[in-house]
Amino acid sequence: MPPSDSLREQIIAQYDAMSAQLQQAARYVLEHPEEVALVSMREVARNACVQPATMTRLAKFLGLAGYDDIRAQHAAALRQGSDGFAAKVRQRADEGSERGASDTASRMLEGLSAQLAKLCEPDSLRRLEATAARLRSARKVYVLGLRSSHAVAWHFHYVMTLLGERSVHLDGPGGTGGDALIRATPEDVMLVISIKPYATGTLELAQLAKEQGVGIVSITDSEVSPLVALSEQAVFCPTESDSFFHTLTPALAVSEVLCSLLAEFDRPKTLEALQQADEHLLQLNTYSAAIPRRR
After folding, report:
1. Phi, then psi, of 72 in degrees rounded to 5
2. 282 pLDDT exceeds 70?
3. 163, 262 in Cβ contact below 8 A?
4. Residue 82's pLDDT band (boundaries 50, 70, 90)?
5. Who's near 110: CB < 8 A, 6+ residues apart?
6. Angstrom distance (rounded) from CA 109 to CA 117
7. Between 20 and 30 A from 40 (CA), which of 56, 236, 262, 287?
8. Rounded Cα distance, 203 and 210, in Å
């Protein structure tokens, strides 16, 4: 359960005016509302990798008397909602570092399940629908995702190529990936995938496309992501994992949902395109036929 809408909107509105340390604290507050409501300021600061004094400075920057005001608003919002997330936070605090290595797989999969369920919330579904509608309206869809986000971008592009010729993957040898934008027009849309730490090349290409009049839609990880200011529509994906690295599973799920929504817009045309793809792959003998194993 998030804090009051006014506080959340205030943090987002003032985010760009904050110092780097305040931004780090503010982002953690935005992304961990249950934790802010339930644990001490020192623990929140430690988890956000800032000094406790930074949390106090954040509160004062927002015009509050102190950090307790931030915590109080989060606690009030939490009391109005269910205790599901609260129970998980309390359980984690009680367990501390006692858990064994054997729990890692279970916790990671449970976490992914919760993250995917969060994508089913009404606001997320509205964003998915609006993003799909914007992609549908485009003459061409340029797809951009660098470094870890490359896998999500490539998968979206691959599925879209089975549906037609509108998708252009901005990925080329020798740094030529952005060359395809030479012929981009305001009739086109760019789907950009990027999570923190945001690749500089991604932001630069997205900015260039926007300056050319190309519409920008994004799959990103936060309402304070630098892609939000560039995007007409944005879908937010959690990336936290019970491991040492970010998870891309929610972002990949969003890309698959977008592909399905685009396919559903014109089912007869989709079926025709898929049939054509099947026949072509069959001629190429792309996939092996199942062969019974000898006993």
Report:
1. -65, -40
2. yes
3. yes
4. very low
5. none
6. 12
7. 236
8. 10
- Name residue, tokens 């009739």: 187
β-pair partners for 195? none
SS3 track for the chain? CCCCHHHHHHHHHHHHHCCHHHHHHHHHHHHCHHHHHHCCHHHHHHHHCCCHHHHHHHHHHCCCCCHHHHHHHHHHHHHHCCCHHHHHHHHHHHHCCCCCHHHHHHHHHHHHHHHHHHCCCHHHHHHHHHHHHHHHCCCCEEEECCHHHHHHHHHHHHHHHCCCCCEEECCCHHHCHHHHHHHCCCCCEEEEECCCCCCHHHHHHHHHHHHCCCEEEEEECCCCCCCHHHCCEEEECCCCCCCCCCCCHHHHHHHHHHHHHHHHHCHHHHHHHHHHHHHHHHHCCCCCCCCCCCC
Q: What is the Cα–Cα distance from 78 to 120, expressed in whole angstroms?
A: 20
Neighbours of 142 (CB within 10 A): 26
Q: Quick one: which of 153, 139, 149, 151 has its CA closest to 186?
A: 139
The pair phi, psi for residue 167, each rounded to 5°, is -90, 135
Contact 218, 193 (CB under 8 A): yes
**Average pLDDT value for residue range 13-36:** 89
Whether the CA torsion 50, 4, 78, 227 is positive or negative: it is negative
pLDDT at 295: 55
**Distance separating alpha carbons of residues 217 and 71, to the nearest angstrom:** 33
Q: What is the pLDDT of residues 181-234, one digit of tens each?
A: 999 999 999 999 999 889 999 999 999 999 999 999 999 999 999 999 999 999
**What is the rounded distance in angstroms from the CA atom of residue 248 to the CA atom of residue 151?**
9
